Amino acid sequence: MNLEQRINAFVKLGKFLSQFTTEGYSKKDTILHNELFFDGFKHQIKISEEQNGWFTESNVLFALEGWSKSLEIENIKEWIKNYNFNIVNPKKIAIIMAGNIPLVGFHDFLSVLMSGHDVLVKQSSNDKSLLPFLAKYIEYVEPGFKGKISFTEEKLNNFDAVIATGSDNTARYFEYYFKDKPSIIRKNRNSVAILTGNETEEQLDSLSEDIFRYYGLGCRSVSKLFVPKGYDFDKFFKAMYKWNPIINQAKYANNYDYNKAVYLMSEFDMLENGFLMIKEDKSYASPIATVFYEYYDSIDTLKETLTEDSDKIQCIVSDGIFASEIAFGNTQKPNLWDYADNVDTIEFLLKI
Fold this sequence. Notes:
Blueprint: H1 3-17, E1 20-21, E2 24-25, H2 34-51, H3 57-70, H4 73-80, E3 92-96, H5 106-114, E4 118-122, H6 130-141, E5 149-151, E6 161-165, H7 168-177, E7 183-186, E8 190-194, H8 201-212, E9 222-228, H9 234-240, H10 250-265, E10 270-272, E11 277-280, E12 290-296, H11 299-308, E13 313-317, H12 345-350
Parallel strand pairs: 3-4, 3-6, 4-5, 6-7, 8-9, 8-13, 9-12, 11-12
Antiparallel strand pairs: 1-2, 10-11
InterPro entries: Ald_DH/histidinol_DH, CoA_reduct_LuxC
Protein name: Acyl-CoA reductase
Keywords: NADP
């Protein structure tokens, strides 16, 4: 396969995924191999929720809709335009995937195959239904991928480099285990929002998406707020209120009740509205149903602190404060060139 064939295959996958949106399912006659794959993929979406209660249909469809847009040809060409794919000597790249949000490892999967390498995938047990099905679709639309994609539940063997994502603890294991291989090892990261008190209702409303999407389980989910002294949280809570049905999800409600009980027994000060708690805390990683906050004295000092802690932070949501900031409501809508941990995956793959 040449690069153009690989691009075209993923564009076709994007068109297939365009039938699965947050508005529902819409089967299109023009999609290749739809008679084989459409109903089957609907079934995989159902299975993924049965296997993992956090993978609700609405969250899975949100992820699929995002990938269908990312895989439009204009986005793919913008992403790859500055790389030289002619220098690749095909190797086998192992990917150890997390399972915190639907298809969280798809970008690595896409990057390896777009680079011309073979991929060996070890999935999380929390997210094991969707990707193998999409891989099969890719092989149908571009037979050149057959033999280049494999999945395993066993110990990884016979690979040349690895991309692994996990917790800080598993990352230490990965670093030791893969010390003799070229690798990208990703650890825990969280995302933050900087509020000034001058945010519009629309911005705060958009922030609620950054907080609640995927139940806050993603590294791009905002888990910490930085606010000025004297900040009035009433506007914040008002903007969050539209997400109140989230408390009807049993797993979320159980976490809310548990964490609330812990805070009350520990006599921690916190504010809550029946489905979200906010607590003053210096940590970046907050539990489910909780957002931490911290007061700042000056924006300049805060910028210095966040720069020093950049290895703990995935996204910074703000308005006109950071050069690399993300607009309110957009943390879960990354571009193909928005690399996790700011490590250029394609550059890594082209140098192996």
